[in-house]
Design goal:
By secondary structure, the protein is an alpha/beta fold. It has 3 helices and 23 strands.
């Protein structure tokens, strides 16, 4: 069966993790990566960096699908910019779930989101567009994660939590059930979130 080729937007460490998931997923063939100008012509895990941002429009002749494969910690701006540029150029955004993750048939995952190895997204959860649910993360039942969020490695988001757009939940963080975390918040590695967080909040608070 012929698989559709996909471009990865980003050529760094998170792109390597995405490559591994896409290879195991098996639904798409990785055609290449988009990186910085100085990275063009290099390879990442055997796949070529075929262009930079300026080449996105020209590459629509060969590719219909892209995945934003840049990472996100302090700000979602790069991932949003890459997604917006690709959408304007006419690309489509597949959702990719590792076969070694568990996503409930009663959960919803938005377009362009990647769910990595060992992650769990339980029943009634809704994860938005252009998100990362990273390795071993838990998104419990009835959680809502808005667009452009990153739930990082080993994070635990308990039931009924609502997370606003562009928020980062750091590795190993634990979010108590039924809380509201605003947009563009940054929850640090290993932090325990025990109360609601307003937009732009940093935990620990500075």
């Amino acid at each position: 069966m012929t698989r559709d080729p996909v471009l990865l937007l980003g050529a760094g460490g998170h792109a390597r993790a995405c490559i591994d998931v896409i290879e195991e997923h098996g639904g798409y063939e990785i055609g290449g990566l988009i990186g910085r100008t100085e990275e063009v012509g290099l390879e990442v895990l055997g796949y070529p960096v075929v262009g930079a941002d300026k080449d996105l429009i020209d590459l629509t002749r060969e590719y219909r699908h892209v995945i934003v494969a840049a990472g996100q910690i302090k700000t979602p701006d790069l991932r949003i910019r890459l997604r917006d540029a690709a959408r304007e150029a006419g690309y489509q955004f597949p959702t990719v779930v590792s076969p070694r993750a568990h996503v409930s048939q009663h959960a919803e995952i938005g377009e362009g989101t990647v769910v990595l190895h060992g992650a769990v997204v339980n029943a009634g959860a809704r994860v938005g567009r252009n998100c990362i649910v990273n390795s071993m993360a838990l998104v419990e039942h009835d959680v809502t994660v808005a667009d452009h969020c990153h739930v990082s490695t080993g994070a635990r988001v308990n039931s009924g939590v609502a997370i606003g757009s562009g928020t980062f939940i750091g590795s190993g963080a634990i979010v108590r059930q039924s809380l509201t975390i605003g947009s563009r918040c940054v929850v640090g590695m290993g932090q325990r979130v025990l109360r609601d967080c307003p937009d732009g909040c940093q935990v620990p608070r500075r």
